[in-house]
Amino acid sequence: MFDQYLSRRYQKFGRPDPSAYLIKDKTAIAGIGATEFSKNSGRSELQMACEAIIDAVEDAGLKMEQIDGLVKFAMDYTDEMHLVSALGIKDLAFFAECGWGGGACCSTISHAAAAVATGMAKYVVCYRAMNERSGRRYGRVPGVETVMAAPNDHYGYIMPYGLAVPPSWVALFGTRYMHDYNVTAEQLGWVSVVLREHACMNPEAMFYGVPATLEDYMASKMIVEPLRLYDCCVDSDGACAIIVTTTERAKDLKQTPAVIMGAVQGIAEQGEMMTSLYRPKISLLPEVWYAGQELWRVSGVTPKDVDVAQFYDAFSPLIPMQMEEYGFVEEGEGALFCEGGERIRIGGELPCNTSGGHLSEAYIHGMNLINEAVRQVRGTSTGQVDDVEISLVTGGLGVPTSAILLRR
Amino acid sequence: MEYVKGVPLLRPYIDYDNQEFWLAHREEKLVFQKCTYCGKIIHRPKPMCPACLSTDMEWIESTGLGTIYSWTTFVYDRAAYPGIRVPYIVVLVEMSEGVRLVSNIEDVTSEEMYIGMPVEVFFDKVSDDLTLPKFRKRKVKK
Ligand SMILES: [Zn+2]
Fold this sequence. Notes:
The structure holds 2 protein chains of 2 kinds. Chain A is an alpha/beta fold.
């Protein structure tokens, strides 16, 4: 009945030739910065944004006056105007903002890379600052006026029924995913447990020193069936900043450049913001699949070349779902791949979310995942994987998405 | 479902493209958009048919019959809508017309829920200005 909507046909022949892709190998991440991650930062998002940017500028070995570009999240309450003013930046040649919640994280890198590759700017900062724990928590219901003032109507079809928070939106996908592929709670539990192990190696993680077992996972409170507390990311206060420049310039700076092989975005047919419920099969994620096809096309590598992955993990089922859509495993085999935890641990076939991810390090809308992917390329992660050549980060999903591939 | 007095339900966002869908509920009708050119039935409402780009659309009344495609049960009050007492169930229903919609199911417990459960629509006038289509389990003749 939906057949004409189901377009798993990647329109390869309509896409530009990879040789036209100016970002690959010519752009790089030269600096990363962050604040501490906490339940209550005790200061403004603007201050945290500034701190993270200063940290990234120092990490790169740059001076603030060299920054000439800035990319923000559309959802961020701070903006380039206030940042220029607070940081004493004199000229800003390039600024942009990226939409769709955590789907924006790798989008910021693609915007910045495009700007430096085309000569619009030299050193572009991408950042995210959020008091998402002590301020407005996404896990709690927004006010009536938020929905009444929505710029489009899609939330209007779910909110009157009480389907009002992100875990419940993902729960509808989760129920069907588990049904379609016989996924068990224990299999999802392994995702949560392994990420906690990784967080326990990372002193910056919110769950550092708080180990959890599969039994703890199974005993954790049910939030919205089938999601338990340990399936949900940790609401956090914090900020991250990342500096993108050309690979040529990055080589003269302080750090080993994390060279960008691909930075892509994706929206697919009938894709919505967390409510893509009207598609032929909701246990598939067409925009993720599409972003993956684009990523492999522009970079010329394949999933088997990837040494370490930071998958956007607002909720644990999203990791196996993405493994399938990025082509690491066959459709329906993601959860099986995670079972027992061996394959996704540091030292496993595909080490995932090696700083603890959103589930256990902090939830900074994907930007802390990018920082970790850069550390893996530099060889400086607390959960370092041996001999990393290629490092993947994926953006928020169930929303218009994005992804980047980095190399040494 | 039990509503909490004094906490209004969040309202749909009604615009040119979807007003027929929402206003039909007041007459206890569930309607979907149908492309008069290619015959495609569509939900959520759109300004044009995504299959053929025709803007020639009509509204058809649904049979009200469907099956459960997915669901979730709210069990933790702090992650639920404060105007509704937990537990409550949100369903994604696949209608006999081939489209899906989000709603609530009543008179069924979480333990009784399963994918494929036959359901039928009923209308709940939750307040003077809001009538919502909701679902009940449907008996199927053997
Ligand atoms: Zn049509």
